[in-house]
Write a structure and sequence with these properties.
alpha/beta, Chitobiase, domain 2, TIM Barrel, 3 domains, eight-stranded parallel sheet, five-stranded mixed sheet, 15 strands
């Protein structure tokens, strides 16, 4: 592997050219500035006919030549040249590269609202990784307690989170790497962080006063005023011309206080009215274009004509079936003239590790559909459901793989290979970037597929991970499975043994100790979940095992807290910790016949 993401065209020639390695080569933006200002042996030419990210890179025994149309193309060329220098120690192979992206927008979004709120240094580490992979968009998903909203200062007065100054610094940091930091504020569904507060409860849709609503009431003037206040607090600190206003999973739409209104006008029309109202305000007040999650409208193609001009629909789906259904949706958006992205997932939420075979299928299918049916971008999502217990280390390979597919999707899937070279090269890139070259990522991929040993396949999660969030007396999860129907201990014995064996192989490798601790902690949580499943299968016969698992939780908690605080603000840790503490206390209280 000479370069990752793999360029559109690369021809290896005879010979090498030695470009002495300097300290500036180790940091991408410093190297880019050096190339722009002039480095001996590197010639930069301009061709205004090239696209803004397109570049040509020629390395011959006499030197290096780069041809671009603008600074953005030069940055992508410098990114490729720096990677080659770091990999070869300055002994550059002679090559001819002609390269440009398949998709205009290639983004990554991480949830910072439902548990983990990464510190500035952690976010900058993510941005540097994205830049090396030629991403050009980054989003921080916000629902509630994660940003110091000036309009509502008391709501975050008691804990640390991102400030307006932090956002402006991140915006500058992204611009230096030709990444667009897009504000992301949910504005309809997923508003329970706000609506559970007494001052805002009345803005929600609910049947009973004691309910915690999740969806704003779009018919209340106060709801619109509330959203305007959030935007006023957030949007001025971003230079992006876009804003993601969310609107996904608005489960209250068509129910409760607005049921009759929706019956008269249609749920799709009511949704479109709210979308257009927010869009008009944002356009008038901030000159920005909106993005919105498309799950609330893709079943109503008759309403596509109501999508605001220049708005971008975000077509998301994280499972095998959802990936397949994207085809019809993408064709419908294209035919209706709706701008859209495809949005796969790292799939770590609900599984702790990702479910790598599903994830790689999801990313590949989304990217291929995006190219075939004219999507403007690919946005890889990274969610924090259930308190965000998963470490970011498990997102690295999916991010690298999505970087490849967004830049160069390659030949269409042939039905046999699963484009395995893309997966392996993504793993090598992650190993080189974070693990000192140790082959950790392949073993992580194997561990992430532990769920294949479980007796049931579960939508967007695994049995072992999900059971950690459910009380010991609850064996059923929605309509998807019931532990009582899960056979015997055989399946979960296999899960526990499998994860232990893979972790033993990882322990043999020498790499960053904090990353190793994060991986080890994840293995322990999967093992804990697997063993909890066994206790749920036959609780009365598992009293001793339950006490041992309670002891295991006591051992896990200090490590979980220390690792969490290393990269994240402390506020939010209680969400998942409370699950572990509840399972511990329930198992301590278990009694036999």
């Amino acid at each position: 592997m000479i370069l990752f993401p793999q360029p559109r065209h690369l021809q290896v020639l005879d010979g090498v050219y030695e470009l002495p390695l300097r300290d500036t080569y180790k940091e991408l933006t410093a190297f880019y500035r050096a190339v722009k200002e002039g480095i001996d042996g590197v010639c930069v030419d301009t061709d205004c006919m090239l696209g803004k990210e397109e570049y040509r890179l020629s390395i011959v025994p006499e030197g290096v030549s780069i041809t671009v149309s603008c600074d953005e193309g030069l940055f992508r060329a410098a990114t490729s040249l720096q990677q080659m220098l770091m990999r070869t120690g300055g002994q550059l192979p002679c090559v001819e590269i002609r390269d440009k992206p398949d998709l205009p927008r290639r983004g990554y979004m991480i949830d910072i609202s439902r548990g983990r709120k990464p510190r500035m240094a952690t976010i900058k580490m993510m941005i540097d990784f994205l830049a090396a992979l030629k991403y050009n968009e980054f989003q921080l998903y916000m629902e509630g307690d994660c940003f110091k909203y000036a309009a509502y200062p008391k709501e975050t007065a008691h804990f640390d989170c991102l400030t307006p100054e932090d956002i402006r610094e991140l915006d500058r940091y992204c611009r230096e790497r030709f990444i667009d930091l897009v504000p992301n504020q949910n504005s309809f569904g997923h508003m329970y962080t706000w609506l559970r507060k007494p001052d805002f409860h009345h803005l929600g849709l609910f049947e009973r006063e004691d309910q915690v609503p999740s969806t704003l009431n779009p018919l209340l003037p106060e709801s619109f005023e509330f959203m305007c206040n959030l935007y006023a607090s957030l949007l001025p600190h971003f230079s992006s011309e876009y804003v993601n206003i969310g609107l996904d999973e608005a489960y209250g739409l068509g129910r409760y206080q607005i049921e009759e209104y929706c019956r008269e006008k249609g749920k799709d029309v009511v949704f479109m009215e709210w979308l257009n109202k927010l869009n008009d305000h944002i356009k008038a007040a901030y000159g920005k274009k909106v993005m919105f999650w498309a799950d609330m409208i893709y079943n109503y193609p008759q309403s596509y004509h109501m999508v605001p001009k220049d708005a971008i629909a975000l077509e998301w789906g994280y499972e095998l079936i959802q990936s397949q259904r994207m085809t019809d949706h993408c064709i419908a958006y294209r035919n209706a003239g709706v701008r859209y992205y495809v949005c796969p997932s790292v799939n770590t939420h609900g599984s702790l590790t990702s479910r790598m075979d599903v994830t790689t299928f999801n990313i590949r299918t989304s990217a291929e559909l995006a190219v075939e049916y004219g999507a403007e971008g690919l946005l890889l999502t990274d969610w924090g459901d259930g308190g965000h217990p998963q470490s970011w280390v498990w997102s690295m390979t999916p991010i690298a793989l999505s970087g490849q597919y967004g830049w160069n999707t390659g030949k269409p899937q042939d039905g046999e290979s699963f484009k395995a070279e893309f997966i392996r090269n993504a793993e090598v890139f992650v190993d080189e970037t974070f693990f000192g070259g140790a082959p950790v990522s392949r073993l992580m991929y194997r561990m992430a597929n532990y769920y294949l040993l479980e007796p049931e396949r579960v939508h967007v999660c695994t049995m072992s991970a999900k059971q950690l969030t459910l009380p010991m007396n609850e064996t059923r999860y929605a309509h998807l499975f019931d532990m009582k129907d899960s056979g015997d201990d055989f399946y979960f014995n296999n899960v526990t043994d499998y994860v232990r064996r893979v972790m033993a192989d990882i322990e043999k490798l020498s790499f960053d100790e904090m990353f190793k601790r994060e991986i080890r902690l994840t293995a322990q949580l999967v093992e804990l979940g697997s063993e909890v499943c066994k206790v749920k299968l036959h609780p009365k016969a598992s009293i001793r095992e339950a006490q041992e698992l309670a002891d295991m939780i006591d051992r896990i908690l200090p490590e979980y807290i220390e690792i969490w605080n290393y990269r994240n603000y402390e506020m939010g840790i209680e969400r998942f910790v409370s699950y572990l503490e509840a399972r511990r206390d329930e198992m301590r209280a278990m009694k036999g016949d």
